[in-house]
Amino acid sequence: MFAIALFEARQRLKLLSTWVYFFGFLALTMLWMAAAGGFFKGASVTFGSQLIDSPRSLMFTTSFLGSIGVIVIAAMMGRSVQQDFEYDMQHFFFSAPIKKHQYMFGRFLGAYLTLAVIFTSILLGAWLGSFIPGIDPERLAHAEPIAYVIPYLVVILPNIFIFGAVFFILAALTRRMLPVYISSVVMLVGYMVAPGLARDLDYKTFAALIDPFGTTAVIRLTEYWPIIERNTRLFLPEGVYLLNRVIWAGAALAGLLVGYWRFHFIATSDSGHGKRTSTGEGEVPQHLSQTSANTQEKPDFQARSLGWLLLRSSWLNLRETTKNIYFLVIVLAGVMMMGASTIDLGSMWGTNTYPVTYQVLEVVSNTFALFMMVITTFYAGELIWREREAHMGQMLDALPVPSWLPLLAKLFALIGLQALLMLIVMLTGMAVQIFQGYFLLEPGLYLYHLFLVQMPGYALTAVLAIALQVIINQRYLAYFAMIVYYIISVTAAGIGLDNPMLIYGNLPSFTYSAMNGYGHFLIRERWYEAYWAGAALLLIVLSLLFWARGTNDGWRQRLQLARHALTAPVLATIAVGVLIFAGTGGVLFYNQYVADCFKSAYHKETEKADYERKYKQYAVLPQPRITDVKLNIELWPEKRALIAKGRYILQNKTALPVTDVIISQDNSVAQYHVRFSQEVRNGLQDSDLGFYSYKLSKPLAPGAQLAMDFEISYSPQGIFGLGRDTPVVGNGTFFNNGIMPHIGYQQDWELSDARDRKKHNLVARERMLPRDDPAGLANNFTGNDADWITFDATVGTSADQTAIAPGMLVKDWTSKGRRYFHYKVDQPMLNMYAVQSARYLVKRDWWQDVGIELYYHPGHEYNLERMDKGIKESLDYYTRNFGPYQHKLVRIVEFPRYAQFAQSYPNTIPYSESVGFIAKVNDKNPKDLDYPFYVTAHEVAHQWWGHQLVGGDTRGGTVLSETLAEYSALMVMKKNFGASKMRRFLHYDLDQYLLGRALERKKELPLAENENQNYIQYRKGSLAMYQLQDMLGEAKINGALKEILNQYGRKSGPYPSVTVLVDALRKITPDDQAYLIDDLFNHIVLYENHATSATARKLNDGRYEVSFAVSAAKVRAGEQGEEKDVALKDWIDIGVDDKDGNSLLRERKLIAQKDNRYTVIVNGRPAKAGIDPDNKLIDRKPDDNMINVELQAQ
């Protein structure tokens, strides 16, 4: 056995393909490390704050690149045994004096050893990659050798065994390679389904176990590791990862042994069924002779029949590909994968959306995309090599047909296969909708999207897959070349190649919206499809020139034949391809670079860096502030254009005269003009960076005012509808004041990420000023060019649309076929406004004397009642507890899902169609959270926290808006849905906080010091405030907040800092709970609580006595996650639940030691008991707080 294994390994190590795989993976890994290490200036491949060669980063690099290598494992393992049957060598081995186990396991071990050598290239590439000159030294951990060895031992070697065993046995039993490739596709099901399941808190562990590659298990085991652990802690196979490896390795071993038992160590036919029947030399087999006798038609190879022959040949290739059991298996696997991907359809907070067609289409088609790429790659090889493997190639090559006919027949068959799979995607999507009780199927949208939007891209891939098989003329090397292509395609944008003109088949991505359909994006898509179709035509011609016929398959011979094949029709076809490619390429190039309609991510970064380098010096110039805004905006949705004319009243609120006015204007503006109420002299006029300066003829004295009139326009530019995106779309325009002129230098336009700044040679800077810094408190967090303004806007739009802006509608009218709407805010507001326009329906209601308006897209009525109720309940709670609502109207306005958020402007809440409008909330399902109600409550709360009380632009300033809005919404949620729903909601908040701190790009800060970090101000803020109200009482918290609002509401600079909130809360906190304020606001504190045991016995009166032990600990973390233990003397809940999760007991205990035991009496049958049962504390492992109760006999 070992002799055979060594022989097999030696032979394979002599093959060119083995070393192509080795050096291919070596190069890919080094490229990956270079991109992640900042070698490429335009690269955005990043591990966040993780160092690129840290133990955890090496695990993921190995897992990702190793998973791509599954095709190499399939080729190597399958061929190790299948090749004997392909070349009729099995008779020699089966009659040799070797035993079955020696043959089988010798072949397996030989292939395993070869693969083990090949995949050392990944770790070697990672190590060599860390020495590439130009990599940022600050991104390197200089890990110990063991950090490279562990991924090889726990990822590479187990995966070679797991997948290798499956592939080897399939090849041995079927004696074909196609089932091997099919099985590799099937194995993708678990790999692709697992990440989706892992988004649900209840399925995280299950998802980690079903992934055969183990990647999801790695994520699950390490997801909450803080930065310091991610950069230093060695990955050891334990917990869910070890269980995953045991399960899959055990299954693979069982499969290997069963396959060994089923394998017949005797000579059979190629098919493996029955014995070969012999015929004499030159004798025609009986069945073939009879078929020939029954055939009446004579073959017709005349030119007039070639078209019909092409169709028949294409159909024959397609039929032979699809009529076997293997295709059925791959279809079933794809259907299972797509079905599983819809389990959490559009899930937010564990609640799915309705299976509307575009949502189902997006999920199933995106899920199937990787499947399709793998199938296209495998079947391209199967089609090209089918006749040669069946030893019929030379016979068919001798037929008097042109070479283009079999080439095109196989290409059309492959594209037909793709189309058939698209049809299966369509039927699966419809089946999902029907199964979920949704019957608005929209077959037209399915057909259009799958066959006219997605199919062209797949067809381009099919051309490339066929071309590589033909040109390389080595099946497995062509497969590997396709892998390289896929990797480059996926990572192109990350390494700075984000121009769709650079990578073959790369088409610009876009989002379908129910409101705006495909919008203007399809025109751009069609031009790129034509561009790459020209390249595809050239690839087809190249494939024709190198088409192998007969025995002339050497490169020199093929080059000679290719030169002779350059006939007039071929040259004409080349000319057509070049004309299409160059012509469309010229149009695209003009739009991108001459009309300046395309900017790469690196170009945008460079603009930000240049803006800071050139104009940071002007940040200290005293500038006037906007006090009044009056706008007249004309929207042309059909043209995607707008003209905005406006007047700002500027006031000098500084103690110094203003001599120069600086204007920062979005540089995508098409036209920009400005005029002042006094004479000015133009200074800097940098339209590329959007920086303009104007010298006043008379300095503006402190307190004096100045009027500024402006006119700006946005239009697509470019030609043939290929211009840049603008703020306007056909239906569902939504833009904010960011497109309007800003006064002064804008620090928000600077690069903020430390690595981006270093890449562009900018000095490091803090993200925000200290929380009580006077300069920061001079501005509010929304901007530095205004305090409180008066606002008036008139918006014109198409006759069939409604335009919305903040304020009350003063008047609407129609003129010259257009509709106009005049809005005015009746009191001062922040300089924060948005404009929307679409074909809306509107639902109206009242809460007391406050009007409620819900503007929505027809068909999106699902959750209007929930939003309406959310507004009413919020207005009721907030006015009773915090103070009056300042407006006479609340409106929600839907916008397309090009962005996925809701945001509160004065009395108006733009709300994405993907956030709540199609949520499917089942009130009877305890897992579902009514997030349309919650998001509405949060945004309405901003009318108090953000639009009445606004914090300064310093660390922690957003706590006064975002954290308090979260708290307010939680209280409304608790009032309406009870504590059980809150427990689940808080669990999601805890999960997102722990994930956020693990992915922090710079440093984690305490809540009161956060630098606009969402996982802190939202998630941790939510947990902190909920715990405080639970400990101190809701009424006391609300009283403190009302007092802050009364004292600091509508206050101009200096604006309040988070200190006012911390001090107010400290004032109402008892001495024995004073630790809460520091722990929650001023430090990063985590708990490590868990239940260790629990027993119960039934008492004579029917109640239960529950005895359980818990462990408690508290740690304080630093900015990078470094931890130290702190003394514990905290009030913590203990609890007992029944089997349905209902509370049987909650008691608060003062815990001052690690190990504690409690005995309690409960009225119901206990199922779980433990510590912090409702996840109110920030616990790194919340899932072990409760433990199953063991019921003892009486």
Automatic annotation (TrEMBL):
Residues 272-294 are annotated as: Disordered. It holds the Pfam family ABC2_membrane_4. The keyword Transmembrane helix applies. Keywords: Membrane, Transmembrane, Transmembrane helix. Gene3D superfamilies: Neutral Protease Domain 2. InterPro entries: Peptidase_M1_dom, Peptidase_M4/M1_CTD_sf. The chain crosses the membrane at residues 20-40, 60-78, 109-129, 149-173, 180-198, 242-261, 325-343, 363-385, 411-435, 447-470, 477-497, 530-548, 569-590. GO terms for molecular function: metallopeptidase activity; zinc ion binding. The keyword Nucleotidyltransferase does not apply. This is ABC transporter permease subunit. It comes from Duganella rivi. Residues 872-1052 form the Peptidase M1 membrane alanine aminopeptidase domain. SUPFAM superfamilies: Metalloproteases ('zincins'), catalytic domain.
